[in-house]
Design a protein that fits this description.
The structure is a single chain. It contains 13 helices and no strands. The chain is mainly α and 304 residues long. The chain has one domain. 78% of the residues lie in helices and 0% in strands. The N and C termini lie close together (9 Å). It is globular.
Length: 304
């Protein structure tokens, strides 16, 4: 890998502060995404409905920007990014919500993205994590396992197909890790990536949804669809997507994705008042370990 391809993280403190602030905002939004998706999972909506709502709202918000920047957008690269960070991620994660408990998503998706990013960066790009990064991943990994023991333990005697949903969550993590690395490697601007993914995903998915896929959207209220669309399509997909791309641009994909290890713990904490789910000592210990791991990883530099 050449020095140009290594893409060192900008050293200016303002870039780092802005990058970490953007990543922190993504952590908050994605933690809420797990809560909102749990509520959506209790409704009659199918995974295909959830994906359609996400793509309709994000596509409508981003379409005006695409029309203005049409000639300047790197369409071939945006198509690949949309396949991983738009269609692949959304379809796998919403299918997972239909087959496995939503609590697993925070652990396997958000907790899995940092590890998938580190593994892909090592195997594909030849960027082995430094010792500090490896230790940070280990600490965060132990914390995620502790949180997982609590969440998975709540679903003893689960149906046989639940493992398929868990595999979908892991594939969603792999898709988003691939998106992050490709975005950084190709020097795509955060705005171009966000608007391009939204519009391409909507253009590819919505015709298939309308013509072929099962729907149950008529069984929920308009206000419920609007609420899901505002959060899933505008806040989680468009705004958080832009912030995540911005964070990768300024602090690099491995540090940005390691910040996402905070999502399972924050989701568990938020679920106590919002969903009435208990928080035991094991889960609290896991939250603390994940926080320590994320803080350690936030200051690492990848080994070249």
């Amino acid at each position: 890998m050449t020095a140009e391809e290594a893409l060192p993280v900008p050293a200016h403190p303002r870039h780092l502060i802005k990058g970490f602030a953007a990543a922190a905002a993504v952590v908050v939004v994605w933690s809420g995404f797990n809560i909102v998706s749990r509520l959506g999972g209790r409704s009659p909506l199918t995974p295909y409905d959830m994906a359609a709502i996400r793509f309709v709202f994000s596509g409508l918000v981003c379409l005006p920007f695409v029309l203005v920047r049409w000639r300047r957008l790197p369409w071939p690269r945006l198509a690949v990014l949309a396949a991983f960070g738009g269609l692949g991620y959304a379809l796998f994660v919403y299918t997972g919500f239909a087959l496995a408990p939503a609590a697993h998503a925070g652990i396997l998706v958000n907790g899995g993205i940092p590890f998938a990013t580190a593994l892909l960066a090592w195997l594909v790009l030849g960027r082995r994590p430094g010792l500090r990064a490896e230790f940070a991943l280990l600490v965060a990994g132990v914390g995620i396992v502790l949180i997982g023991l609590h969440s998975f333990g709540q679903f003893a005697g689960a149906p046989a197909h639940q493992w398929v949903g868990d595999v979908c969550f892991l594939l969603a993590a792999l898709c988003y890790a691939s998106f992050g690395l490709l975005f950084r490697h190709w020097h795509v601007s955060p705005l171009d990536a966000t608007i391009g993914i939204a519009v391409i995903a909507a253009a590819c998915y919505l015709p298939a949804y309308l013509l072929f896929l099962p729907k149950a959207i008529a069984g929920v209220s308009v206000s419920f669809v609007l609420g899901q669309g505002m959060y899933q399509g505008i806040l989680a997909a468009s705004i958080a997507g832009l912030l995540f791309a911005y964070a990768i641009h300024h602090i690099g994909p491995q540090r940005a994705t390691l910040m996402l290890a905070l999502v399972p713990g924050l989701s568990a904490l938020a679920a106590v008042p919002l969903l009435g789910e208990p928080l035991d000592a094991v889960t609290l210990a896991g939250v603390m370990l994940v926080t320590v791991g994320a803080v350690l990883g936030a200051t690492h530099q990848s080994a070249r």
